[in-house]
Specification:
5 strands, Rossmann fold, 3-stranded parallel beta sheet, about 350 residues
Length: about 350
């Protein structure tokens, strides 16, 4: 076993600044918490990138229901309901279960087993410095989610990546501290036990943080997001409630699209011609906010139409959907077991064959 201390064992002081194109043979690891329906921020911030990555790389994509339990432990039945719905959503939008491994986190016990190794060797100070814990601590206390699971969330996240030897992780800029911590944990594990787990590298999303329907950051916890495959009437209802440029008190008042949350969605769903129509019409008061929202609703609905129908058919065919999920979980367990056997070999933490 290695005895010499590694150089710069903790890398968090040197933050990851940029992503690099994964080399051929790289393995992508990512997932989503199953706390609610998917919203369009999940699509543009993660799923859309997965769909591009699957063209060139093998990916392990998990419905992370243990992570969901850190804040939804009182309603585990809902966590499992959303687990199935989210996987149906991924499939409906084109995530290929043959090119990738699509699995449910709790169905692969090796995630938890590797977490046990990681949490024993992760200093408390490393977790206490994570901004998402520090910044949300008061909110967590108020919502009765100030718990051990939420505190050690980044350790489980590191195990999620390492159990499949993930080399790259798609992330947003706000997730840099978590990936830094994963790299620190993997580096320390390799130093202590002579392992060779890859230190995961980032692939940054090009999508900026989306503004929700109430003007705040889009979040499931704020209930201010479009579901990814909403029905047309629900899209219309959601758009009607969205705030616009405060300067447009009356129909004849000109506005500024850059100050309007609705315009941000137009940039995702509208073509060049529609964008020009919105920009000119808003600034000259040639169109009203209702006209702008109707155009956006039409464009969103057009993009959601196909996946919405595929998702409906998947959820109506329990046998087919369950078979896809079962196959993905089995493939994930097979790979995870191989890695845990290697971890036990490195650490010497193995049972006697006669026990």
């Amino acid at each position: 076993m290695t005895t010499q201390a590694p150089q710069n064992e903790s890398s968090s002081a040197k933050q990851i600044k940029q992503s690099e194109k994964p080399a051929p043979g790289s393995l992508i690891m990512s997932g989503m918490r199953t706390t609610h329906f998917m919203h369009i921020g999940n699509y543009h911030g993660a799923l859309k990138q997965w769909l591009e990555l699957q063209k060139d790389y093998v990916g392990y994509y998990g419905a992370m229901n243990w992570h969901a339990m850190t804040s939804s432990y009182k309603t585990p039945h809902d966590v499992m309901k959303f687990t199935r719905l989210i996987i149906a959503e991924w499939l409906a939008w084109g995530l290929d279960p043959d090119r990738n491994v699509i699995f449910v986190q709790s169905e692969v016990p090796e995630h938890v087993e590797l977490t046990m190794f990681f949490q024993m060797m992760t200093p408390m100070s490393w977790l206490e410095r994570v901004p998402t814990w520090k910044d949300a601590e008061e909110e967590a206390k108020a919502s009765d989610t100030h718990n051990l699971g939420r505190f050690m969330y980044p350790v489980l996240q590191a195990a999620d990546i390492a159990i499949y030897r993930g080399t790259h992780v798609p992330i947003g800029q706000d997730q840099i501290p978590h990936l830094e911590l994963s790299r620190d944990i993997v580096r320390r594990f390799n130093f202590l036990y002579g392992g060779n787990l890859p230190e995961p590298k980032p692939i940054f999303s090009s999508t900026p943080t989306l503004i929700g329907t109430d003007g705040r950051k889009m979040s499931k916890s704020y209930n201010n997001a479009f579901q990814l495959t909403q029905e047309p009437d629900e899209i219309t209802k959601t758009l009607r409630a969205m705030p616009t440029d405060p300067a447009r008190i009356r129909r004849e008042n000109p506005g500024e699209p850059l100050k309007c949350a609705v315009y941000g969605f137009h940039k995702l769903y509208s073509n060049t011609e529609d964008l020009a129509w919105v920009e000119t019409g808003c600034r000259t008061a040639g169109i009203g906010c209702g006209d702008c929202k109707k155009k956006l609703g039409d464009n969103i609905n057009a993009e959601m139409m196909g996946p919405r129908e595929i998702k409906r058919k998947l959820l109506a065919d329990d046998e087919k959907l369950d078979a896809i999920i079962a196959d993905g979980c089995q493939r994930a367990r097979t790979e995870a077991k191989k890695q845990m056997d290697q971890v036990r070999s490195w650490t010497g933490f193995q049972g006697n064959s006669d026990w």
